[in-house]
Amino acid sequence: MTLAKCLRAACDHADQFLVGSPETTQANAPFPHISALGHVGIDDEAAIQELIQIVAPRVTRSGSGRYFGFVIGGATPVSMAADWLTSVWDQNAQAYGSSPVAAEVEATVAGWLLDLLALPATASVGFVSGAQMANFTALCVARNEVLGWAGWDYDGQGLFGAPPVGVFLSEAAHATVRNALRMAGFGESQIRALPADDQGRMFPGALRHALESHAGPKIICAQAGNVNTGAFEDFRPIAELAIAHGAWLHVDGAFGLWARASPRFCRLAAGCEHAHSWSVDAHKWLNVPYDSGWVIVRDPRAHARFKTAGCAYAGEPDAARRDGATWAPENSRRARAFVLFAALRALGVSGVADLVDRCCDMAQRFAGRVVQERLATVLNDVCLNQVMLRLNAPAGVDAGGFHEAVAAAIQSEGLCWMGTGQWRGERILRLSFSNWQTDIEDVEAAVSAVARAVQAVASTQKRSDT
Ligand SMILES: *Cc1c(COP(=O)(O)O)cnc(C)c1O
Q1: How far apart (Å, rounded) are the C-alpha atoms in residues 218 and 191?
Q2: Which of 141, 204, 386, 455 is the most exposed place for a label (fewest CB within 10 A)?
Q3: Which atom of ligand 1 is nearest to 283's Cα?
């Protein structure tokens, strides 16, 4: 009885929560005083109710169609329900032996994904917590492989005394790529951040120059979807340079790789199929709950060696009996593929394309409306789902502070959420359109929220002048 009661309490709350409008929660509301743990526990249902009482009023409404911060996404109803079931079944997706059904569903979903993204059908896929772990895994594989190409045996010798590997990326690469490199054993002196153009793309000429000046093993990290501009690297010349210089090419496509699932936008990511590895998130644009992403590696043998060579769980990967832990850093973990199965099945090939297209269309529309209303300058080519705005700050007012104040005013009004970012030394307002619900009304709400906030902040700034 207690299980049914707990789940019902959760379900009743979810029903109310999901239909509630975004402004009914206050993410910055003060956190209440919590009583000591207590020696004796309380009733299960009461514990759930206490959790709801504490958390629900303070939730950041990032699942809403009017949340434009970072690149967040949301969760579709089907993915939420599958996520609950994943907990109910509580499978350990570590090995075939621990859950054959989780392994089979992973294999199925991996095939669907490679098909959707038009990546090599023989590539291996690891189910990870997100793009940073995907980048980390891919860069570990890359590191071991390029060392191997240079005659260094990572499996036997590790990194100690290894020839220095050079990593080449754009200065506009996502910050988590740097974190991943750090965790993978790279120091700052091995990372070459190359100048980027006004959309955050590497200059292939500068890349060639940098590659020519490094004698040792090389890894190139390219980007499908810059987090500020949405821009894609020029993959064809970069892939040719990778071949010419014997470099590993990794593509961070946390959200941008989904462009490949859309006939309208796939040309943006053309050429990145020539890479050796890719990262992509599910919890962003596919709109499944956290935490879910994939690492994809062209050469499954290289991928499998990253973790298991010579270790306790060693052995050749067996295509018929997939061990999930072979392809990801974690060992025990939830069966993330159940959610992905349901989410992808519900959308179908055209549904995924529609999701991408709709978000890009809304981004375009918003950018157009902002210009029409003379609220701001759009700083990026809105090629995908990201929009960067430079607001017209009143004369004599600090532009950076003005952007911060406008974002704060929008957030505290609570009807929409958007944040600031840093772009080429300038504070900007940044929006991401990556939620399945965002429609034309939401775009209008965002435009008017910006207009109100700009006016309110400008008038207080003027008042403080006089
Ligand atoms: C979000 C993002 C990441 C990091 O992904 P997580 O899912 O937060 O680990 C990496 N690269 C890009 C381009 C991103 O947008």
Answers
A1: 10
A2: 455
A3: 7
Q: Which long-range contacts link 77-82 to residues 24+ away (Cβ below 8 Å)? A: 77/18, 78/342, 78/343, 78/346, 79/286, 79/287, 79/288, 79/289, 79/339, 79/342, 79/343, 80/14, 80/289, 81/342, 82/338, 82/339, 82/341, 82/342, 82/343
Q: Which residues line ligand 1 (CB under 6 A)?
A: 71, 130-132, 174, 176, 225, 227, 252, 254-255, 281, 293
Best residue for ligand 1 mutational test, from 176, 227, 252 (most atoms within 8 Å of Cβ): 176
How distant is the alpha carbon of residue 219 from its chain centre? 21
Q: Which atom of ligand 1 is nearest to the CA of 130?
A: 7
| pLDDT tens profile 166-209 | 999 999 999 999 999 999 999 999 999 999 999 999 999 999 99
Separation CA 407–CA 358 (nearest Å): 25
Q: Which residue has the higher pLDDT, 72 or 317?
A: 72
Query: Bigger pLDDT: 433 or 307?
Result: 433
Output the CA 279–ligand 1 centroid distance in Å.
9
Ligand 1: residue of 70, 227, 229 to mutate (most ligand atoms within 8 A of CB) is 227
- Helix (H) or strand (E) holding 125, with range, is strand 124-128
Is the pTM above the cut of 0.85? yes
| Cα 308 off chain centre by | 27
| Cα 31-37-40 angle, rounded to 5 deg | 145
CA dihedral sign, ordered 11, 12, 13, 17: positive
